[in-house]
Amino acid sequence: MNAAANLAGFDASWLSFTGTEIRIGWNGLSYTGGTVEVDFTAPAPATQALLGAGLLGLTMGRRRGQNARLSPA
Asked: Is 32 in contact with 6 (CB distance < 8 Å)?
């Protein structure tokens, strides 16, 4: 989070992270801008490859199941 230009006195000590939450301590900060910028990075290529492989596996499994139901017993 790059809010140093918008929030006087803001630094990493105002943030806390848990397994499911990001908390920001707003007490004592003065807001002087029109927006607060939050920059999220894109997933790493390995993460994208893993997601793609999983989706491909789900698609192949679904097609295999459909073919088994369509073929005569």
From this structure: yes
